Structures are given as C-alpha cells and as structure tokens.
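Task: encode each sequence below as structure tokens.

Item 1
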Amino acid sequence: MNLANRITFLRILLIPVVVVALLLPLRGRAFDVGVLVGAILFIGAAVTDTVDGYVARSRTMVTNLGKFLDPLADKLLISMTLLALVDLQRAQTWAAMVIIAREFAVTGLRLVAAGEGRVIAAGSLGKAKTLMQVIAISFSCLSPLLDWQATALINRIGMDIAVVLTVLSGIDYFWKNWDVIRETGRHAKAEE
C-alpha cells in the first residue's frame, strides 16, 4: 500500500473517532471538549482528501485501490458525521438524507461504470459540493462553541447551500454519464 492510500486509509480510521468525539459529552471548564476535538478531527480528516490526491498525482501513485478508497472515505466521513450532527440536532434530518442518498446514487453509478471498464472522475461541481459540505459540517460541528445569535441561521444557510450543490452535482453526474446506464440496460436485455 503506497503513501497516498495510507493517507486515505487514515481518513477512514478517523471516522469513528470523529463521531465518538462529537457524541460523547466531554465537558471542560468553559466548553465541550468533545465538540472541539470532533471538529478538529473532522477538519483534519477532510484535509487528508486533498493531501492524498496531491501525493498520488505528484508521485504517480494513482492506483485502482486509491480510486476506490478515496471517494468511499469521503462519503463515509460526510455521511457518518452528518448522522452524528442529526443526533445532536445540529443538522436537519431531511438535509442529511438528501446528501447521503446522492452519495449512494453516485457511488452506484460509479460501480456500474467500473463494471463497464470506465472510471468516472470527480467534476468541478462535485468538488465544489464536497468543499461546501466540509465547510457546512465543520461549522455545524463548531457551532456550540460559537456564542453568536446568528449561529443557527448561518448553520442553516451553509447546510442549505451544501444540499443544493449536492443535488446539482448529482444531476450533473447522471446527465454526463447517462450512457453508462443506457449501455448497462442494453447488456442486461441482450443477456436475457
């Protein structure tokens, strides 16, 4: 396993630690230490997405394992953290479900494409979606530590923007790769 894949694997290993830190009530003197630790670990794990990609490309370490693990790690990190935030009532259930459903749908599309020998790379809208999800989730993680009256509104607006970008990027993936589904349907009919 090369360095880039190890960094991706580290991101996967950090996911349960992030969730436990967010959910455990670890009160310090002035604030909830678990919230701070969970937020820092989430942000750190999210940053590893950029690091592993840079390492893989700059050192020509792009592998099929990395192409599989990297988006999986991203989806697990986002999904599990969102579920923790829903449990903490810092994210709305409907927003989490839309984001998670899109992630599963695009993962399914990628798996179908892989079965046809194609790799669907992340597009610019998908990257913008991921960045906005990370920003919105980071803010939601940190919101109990921020003593602003506008925190709830900013939290809601950030998550709403993340949901809109999530839906738009999902539509974009399916629109640009509809031929994968069409071809798979033709192969299935031919095999009958």
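Item 2
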Amino acid sequence: MNHYNLSSDLELVSMLKDGDLTAFTEIHRRYYGVLYSHAYKRLPDSEEVKDILQELFICIWNNRETINIGSNLPAYLYTSVRNRILNIFKHQKIESDYITSFLHFAHQNEPLADEPFRIKELVAIVEAEVSLLPPQMRLIFEMSRNSYLSHQEIADKLNISSLTVRKQINNSLKILRVKLGTHFFMLFF
C-alpha cells in the first residue's frame, strides 16, 4: 500500500480505471477530508455533506471505466461536490415553492368547481358500501346515522344491549374506513 501513497493523482486515476480498489481507497483517503470541509462551508449539515461525498465516491467507483476526470483530479472532485450542493439547493427551492403554492391554494378557501359532483359521488359510494354490510349491522348503523338515535334508543327498539349496539357501530365504521379509504383519496386529491 505504501506505493499508493507516493503515486500521483494521474497514476491513481489510471489505476482506478483499471479497477484497482486500493487506488480508489487512496483517492478517498487523500481527498475526503478536504472535500468535507469544502462542502460543509457551503452546506452546514454534516449528514447531508456525508451523503454528498458518499454519492460522489460511489459514482466514481461505479463509472470508473468511463469517467472523464481529466488531468486535474482535485478540480474534478471540487466541481462534482459543488454541483451536488447546487442540486440540493435547487431541490430545496422547488420544495419551498411547492409548499408556498400549496399553502396559498389551501388558504383561498374557494370550493373546487366539481365539488358538488364529488360530494354526490361520495354519498353514492358510501350508501353502496353501507348496503353491503351484514343486515343487522346495517340496520343499527342506519338507525344511528340516518335516524340520529342514541345507542340506548336503538338497543330499546331492537331488544339488544347498548354495548352490542356500540360494538356493531364500531365494526361497521371499521369496515367502511377500510373500503372507503381509497375512494376518499381518489375523490379529494
């Protein structure tokens, strides 16, 4: 390994292109610290900088046979780190613009043009799913939600315990949540 310490950058790049893992390790050892310092000055997030450097060195190793580093390895590495940092800033700006746009839209409180249609469609879907419930469960659910009866009132009318009514309503809600989950998502997003 000693001769790798003494090798020039050009020699290391040449060995790297031939698949020499020790040459790659020497490049990493030689430049990781200075690249980290360089990146951290521009992006003071230690984990993000580590990710950038890891991606850079993985890219170099994976593309070692075709990579065009040229005659100046440090310039190539610094430029690659700078470009990765700029990509992060660009991505953060896009995220920020999207969030701002979404918040602006959300605060307008204007109904969507097709909102009445969506509500009508949702009601039809809910009614269809309720009709698929087991008969006793459906009856209890409809008495609770459509007739606005309390658990005790339903229990008295059907000669069952209020605990049974509560359990039947909870079970029906669980079933409907599972079945309607995707419909809610598709209708409102």
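Check on item 2: The two ends are 59 Å apart (CA to CA). Residues 73-108 form the longest helix (36 residues).
End of task.
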